[in-house]
Amino acid sequence: MYLIALCDDEADAIQKTEDMLENYQREHRWLDFAIERFENAQMLLNKAREENYMPDLILMDIYMPDKLGTDVAKELRSTGNESKIIFLTASREHALDAFGVGAFQYLVKPVEEKDLYKVLDMLLRDITEERNKYILLKTDGRIQRVYVNNIVYCEAQRKTQYLYLEDGTKYTLHLTMAEIYEILSCYQEFVRTGASYILNLEYIDSLNAQYTSLATGKKIYLPRGAYKGLKEQYFRYYCGGQDVTGK
Question: Is the pLDDT of residue 155 over 50?
Answer without folding.
Answer: yes
